[in-house]
Amino acid sequence: MALWRGSAYAGVLALAVGCVFLLEPQLPSLPLRSLWSSLPLSPASPGPGSPEGRLAAAWDALIVRPARRWRRVAVGINACVDVVLSGVKLLQALGMNPGDGTDHSILHSRNDLEESFTHFLGKGAAAERFFSDKETFHDIAQLASKFPGAQHYVGGNAALIGQKFAANSELKVLLCGPIGPKLHELLDDNVFVPPESLQEVDEFHLILEYQAGEEWGHLKAPHANRFIFSHDLSNGAMNMLEVFVSSLEEFQPDLVVLSGLHMMEGQSKELQRKRLLQVVTSISDISVGIPVHLELASMTNRELMSAIVHQQVFHAVTSLGLNEQELLFLSQSAAGPHSSLSSWNGVPDVGMVSDILFWILNEYGKSEGRASDLTRIHFHTLAYHILATVDGHWVNQLAAVAAGARVAGTQACATESIDTSRVSLRAPHDFLTSHSEAGSRIQFSPDEPVVKWHRERVSFHFTPVLVCRDPVRTVGLGDAISAEGLFYSEVHSH
User: Is 479 annotated in the active site?
Assistant: First the structure.
C-alpha cells in the first residue's frame, strides 16, 4: 500500500511541476531540477550520500593504527589446501538429489554428505564436518579437485590468518601446521615455515559454496555460505602442536594465534582430553606478557566444546574469535545464557549476543579472584560485529572492530576498498544491549558507525557490516576479520 501511495504522490508532484513549467516558464530551473530529483521514482544507487557510503567514510576516519604495533606473529596449527567449488554442482555430479536434510555431526557416507549439505543450504548457514571413510572421501576429493571451475586456495584457520598478517610487509609471520607441497607453493613469501612443519602430502578440505538464492530441488539458499568437510588426520590429531611450541623460543613472537581445536572432533574422547591438557601446558610455557588469541570454528561435539571451556583452555588464552553459531553452541555446551535457544532466527539478536559475551568474560575471564588471562572476545556475524573487552587490558578497539567489519566487505566482494554499489547495510537500526538485565536501547547512525556501551567491568564495541550482495568468496572471512581486528589492537603491558 505504501508503494502505491508513494507512486501516487510522485505522480501528483510530477503533474504540479509540469503545471509550474507551463504557468511560470521564467521560474529558475535549479529549484525545479532539485524538486524533480527528490521524486521517489526508484531507489537511489548507493553512493557517498547513501547510508553505505556515509558508513564507509566514517570507518576510514576511525581506523587508525595503534601506538604500539606487533612485529612478530606466530600462528598455528591447522593448515590445508581448500578446494573450492559449487556444492550443488558437485553433488549433482555425484548423482545426488536433495532430500529433507539432516545434520550429521560426523559424515560416514555419501548419503550423510547429501543430507547435511541439504540441511545447511536450507538455512544459509556455514558448517564444517569430518568425513570418516577415507576411501570414499578420497574418491570425492579426486572428482572435486579436477571439477570444472574448482579452485585451490590456502586453507585452515591458522594458514589463512597467517596469510592475512603476511599481507603487511612490516610483520614477520611464523606458520606451523601440516604443510604439503601445494600449500607451501600457495603461501605468501612473507610466511616462514619451520622445516619440521613440511610434509610430503597435502591435507585437502572440500569447500562446497552456494550463493544467496541458489536453488537445489525444492530448496533455496537464504544466504551465500559454504559447507566444509575433510578426512584430515594430521590436523585432527594436532600433530604440529609440539613443533609450534618448540619454534616459539627461537622466533620470539609478540603475538601468538592458535586455532584447530575443532579438528579433534573425529578423535576419541581420551585423545581429545589428552591433547587439550597438552594445549594448556604448551600455552602456559609461552612467556608471560605475550598475548595468545584462540580462533574457534564450527563444532558439533558438545563434550569437546565443554572440555575446551572447562579444562582451563579459556583461562590460558588472552583473546577469542568466534561467529554466531560457535557462540550459541558454546553457551549450549556450558549452560550459559539463552542456551535453550536451538538456533538463531535470522540476524542474531544483539542483546542476546551481548549477554553471552558478558557471561564468558564474567565467568571465565580475568579477574582479581581468578587465575585467567582471557580479556577479549571478537564476535562476528554476517550483519554486525562486537568486540568485548575486560577494562584496562586493550586499547584501540574502536578502530579494531571497524577494521574487522571493513575487511569483511572488501574481501567478500574481492575489492581493495568498499564499493558502495555492491554492499548493503543489514544490521538492526536499533537494538537492546541486554535481555538478561535492563539493557539500554541503542539507535544506530551510519555517521557514527561504532557504538559503545559498558556493563560492569566489560566494554562492548558494536559496528555493522556492509554485506557484499554478490560475494566472490565466503571461505576465510572469519579468519580475515580476526586477523584484521588483532592487527589494529594493542594490549596493555602489566
Answer: yes
